[in-house]
Amino acid sequence: MKNRTILASLALVLSVSSQSIAADMVFTSWGGTTQDVQKSAWADKFTAKSGINVLQDGPTDYGKIKAMVEAKGVNWDVVDVEGDYAIQAGDKGMLEKLDFKTIDKSSLDPRFVTDYSVGSFYYSFVIGCNKDAVAACPKSWAELFDTKKFPGKRTFYKWSAPGVIEAALLADGVTPDKLYPLDLDRAFKKLDTIKSDIVWWSGGAQSQQLLASAEAPFGSFWNGRLTALAATGVTVETSWAQNITAADALVVPKGTKNKEAAMKFIAFATSPEGQAEMAAGTGYAPVNTKSPALMDPAIAKTLPDQQTSSQVNADMAYWAKHRDEIGERWYAWQSK
Amino acid sequence: MLLNFNSLGSWKWVLLAITFLTAAFLLLPILFIAALSFGSSQWLIFPPPAWTTKWYSQLFADPRWLDAAWTSFRIAVMVTLLSVVIGLFAAFGLVRGRFFGRTLLRALFMTPMILPVVVLAVALYAFFLRIGLNGTTTGFVIAHLIVALPFSILALTNALEGFDKSIEDAAVLCGASPLKARLLITLPSISHGLFSAAVFSFLTSWDEVVLAIFMASPTLQTLPVKIWATLRQDLTPVIAAASTLLIVVTIALMLVTALVRKGLKA
Amino acid sequence: MASPTSALEEQTTTRFRLGDRSSTLPALVLILIFFVLPVLALLARSVTEPVLGLGNYVELLGSSTYIKIFFNTFFVSALVTVISLLIGFPVAWALAIMPQRLATVIFAIVLLSMWTNLLARTYAWMVLLQRTGVINKALLGLGIIDKPLIMVNNLTGVTIGMTYIMLPFIIIPLYGVIRKIDPALLQAAALCGANRRQALTSVLIPLAMPGMAAGGLMVFVMSLGYFVTPSLLGGTSNMMLAELIAQFVQSLVNWGMGGAAAFVLLVVTLSLYALQLRLFGAAGEGGR
Asked: Where in chain C are the domains?
């Protein structure tokens, strides 16, 4: 008898869940400090200005988006996704068309605007090097692929996404205007020459760890990660030569019940002030061309949008169209 | 004589050596994580440039970690209770029952362990969306229960199979009811099976991350999800601090239990 | 042939019959509603997406990449299982017979090793095993090696990492099994003139076999579905099936292929399991 009472009260205590907060919309991103900045620069300020409450969720998962759109039970209102996925998902009918009456796209970088998405922020793949660990640092993609001049391990992004294939082609001598359509055979041939010296990074944190510990003293990185790494005291040398841009995008899954709030949120996030604050906090570039004027010049010049002298833009539309086939060939090559 | 420690002769040392080496192997990462949690560098470099407790201060300053830990704990407890009870019933049926399709049923119960969790996660997520269970504690517990049950059933069927039923029958013959015989004779005898079932069920739920990501909501997050989201984006020894803290608390609990048991025996 | 047991079960009232198939009902209902139905719905997509037919399976089984990943997955799982059994058996044996105090401490260490978060443990191994990691630094410093060992981003790393996780799943159940073995049986063997080796191979191991088979199965099956540890500790040429399926489901959002891969894995594994049940049976039936 006594045991039953204990069990019952235990069940009662354990089933009490925390109070659910009344939210007016949900913003989902990839987590970590980037999302923390998105929260403080966008969500909190948006709530203060409009009174619409914003709940944070994550990490972004494309499987979840597909499931919720199909089940007509969408509970993510604005999602930060990869640029090429945004285009593909839009074509597949998974996203709401953006309301450009609410969202002012006039000063947005046109590279990152489509019917279904606007840029969230953009970044560049650059060459990073731990200066204390090696005698010399590679300064171009060709040098990064040169194991004779620069022996040792190098690190690249593991997943199939814009960046590595382009770097291989550029290293092999392809000029930026002739990059697309991507010659996959040529790229994989070039990658084969250094395959045994590659250590793959699967997340931003891992890339920083590899560089900091000199397990892979140089490689291809997201520029923001190198900025953050340098700030913790590691001597990082960055080369922006032929840096390859890619972008994250903000989308609205089809069938969301908070469409109006979602559009207003995106309008705020892509405003000059919203983008400026985001850039300052993350080291990534703003997609609003009016933002650099609002920023501290010292910070502004470390951002990708100022490194345009030899910048190469990854073609998001091309990737969106060939996402699946490139993915299959990529994993096939990796597993060899 | 093989089961008598003292009469093993030289084999005793071989066994002890393997055991100590294995124990050292099992301890190494734990000690390493503990050491890292006091290192001043954000990066996992050993030896660290300096020592600090700032990661622990960060941990305590952020209520979301404690929140996540508490959520993980209460879900794991519920899952364990349900898994052991339902698993026990199922084990009795599988071991004692004589019916067609027993082997098939056994295989069916094992399937949640075989199927990659991500498939179950997406399937359950889509299902729960339609019946309104997603983002709820109930849904979470059900999801974890599905993957914990195979461990429970496996451990308990094995324990029951190794149990000599005639002792239980003897008790019934002596006048005890079947229920009493099972409670007082069988259960204590398979206590190790119950322990295994409970431990594996608890740990399966406690450490589970893929299902948790799908079952979570902004207000319902477990510790592994928080660690996963944080670690993918930013490396920080706060996680090492959290892990170490957990170990310390567990060791403390184990010591207390041992002392209490000693006190009870005295 | 009315055994006392069946006669008893006849006598006892059917109000509380724990021991026939009806007590498997709660588990069965749970698994049917919350596992079989939703999963079948998803797996069905393997023949409906992107078009009706077996296209996904043809692509899967016809591609050398996927076949390689399949084989690699089963190979690594088998390797980890064998190594865990080889290490786990002596440890469980030692635990079952060593002085109580020492056994408690070692057992606590085994439990504690399961208690740390999986990601934390895997990252720890990553840093320990690196070229510039602690183990290499120590070995180099002691002069045991003169070039760093490559123990991560390859099969070695995956094996070490996964064995670390799987060992307790062998040790804990096997410990219980060995403890239950009647020492008299081994004393009898000694009396019959068996030396230690003969007693080990003809008596102890067969008696412990059901425990080893159960633990081994659990570890093998769990390894098949793992991808966090192999992903962080292995190289891309060691890619495991679970990681591929996760990529299909969550990133490429190709549920047709993901479902097909999962289904093939399921069929192969269940067949192996059925084989194991037939070979080793249940201790109450085939056993001794």
From this structure: 53-278
